[in-house]
Amino acid sequence: MRNQKKVIFVPGFSGVDGDGWPEWLRGEFIKCGFDFSILPMPDIMYPEVHQWVDFLKAQKIKVNKNTYFIGHSLGCITIARFLATLPGKTSAGGCVFVAGFDSLPKIPLLVGFCSLPLDFSTVKKHMREAMVILSDNDPLIPNKDTLDFASKVGAGVIVEHNKGHFKADIKELPSVLNTILEMDQMRQEMVEIKRLRKA
User: Fold this and answer.
1) Residue range 23-47, pLDDT digits in tens
2) Mean pLDDT of the chain
C-alpha cells in the first residue's frame, strides 16, 4: 500500500532478545494497520557506526509523514545519525527512543557511535515528533545520559518504573505503542484542521 503507515524498529547492541516487547509491538501495530519491521542489524555483537547507518540507507526506506522509528539503546543514536543524512525537507512522522544515549559508553566497541560529530539541529528537522522513554533503574545507561540525549533531539520524556534496560524480560511496553498512536492521531487531526480552513 502506497500510503501505509509503517514502523521501523532498530535494535541495539546484541540485537533483539527472544520474544520480548519488540515482538509484542509487532503484533499490536499490525492490529492497528501499520507495517512493522525489526531491522536485522549487521554484526550485532561487533557493531560499527558507518556500517549500521549505511545499512539503514540500504533499506531504501521511503521516509515520510507515515513513517515512524523506534530505537532501543544503540539503535537510538543510529536512527539519529540516519535521519541526519536525509535530504531536504524529508521528515519522519515521529521517533520513539528507548534508553537512548549519545555519551561515550563504557563499552569501547561502541565509542564510534558517540564520538563522531552529529548535528542535532539537522536531526530534529527530519522528524516531526520525538519521545524518549527511560527506566528509573536502568543499570547500563545513566538516566542523566538519556535525559541529555532527549534534550538534544528535542524529545519529551516518559519515565518507566523498574524496567531495567528494557531487555527480553519486559514482555510488553504500552508506552511505546501509545506514543506512536498519539503522534499519528495528532497528525491526522492537524491535516483535518488544515482541510477545514481551506474549505
Assistant:
1) 999 999 999 999 999 999 999 999 9
2) 91
Taking 90 as the threshold, does the pLDDT of residue 141 lie above it? yes
Report the alpha-carbon distance of residue 55 to residue 53 in Å, rounded: 5
Residue 198 buriedness (CB in 10 A; 0-12 / 13-18 / 19+): exposed
Is the Cβ–Cβ distance between 20 and 171 less than 8 Å?
Answer: yes
Q: What is the DSSP letter of 66?
A: T
SS (H, E, C) 118-165: CCHHHHHHCECCEEEEEECCCCCCCHHHHHHHHHHHCCEEEEECCCCC
| Contact partners, residue 173, CB within 8 Å, separation at least 6 | 21, 24, 25, 98, 133, 160, 163, 166
pTM over 0.70: yes
Task: List the chain domain ranges.
Answer: 6-198
The CATH class of the 6-198 domain is alpha beta
Considering only CA atoms, which of 195, 192, 176, 193 is closest in space to residue 34? Answer: 176
pLDDT for res 168 = 85
| Strand, coil or helix: 33 | coil
Of 157, 89, 81, residue with least CA distance to 128 = 89
**CA–CA dist 172, 93 (Å, integer):** 23
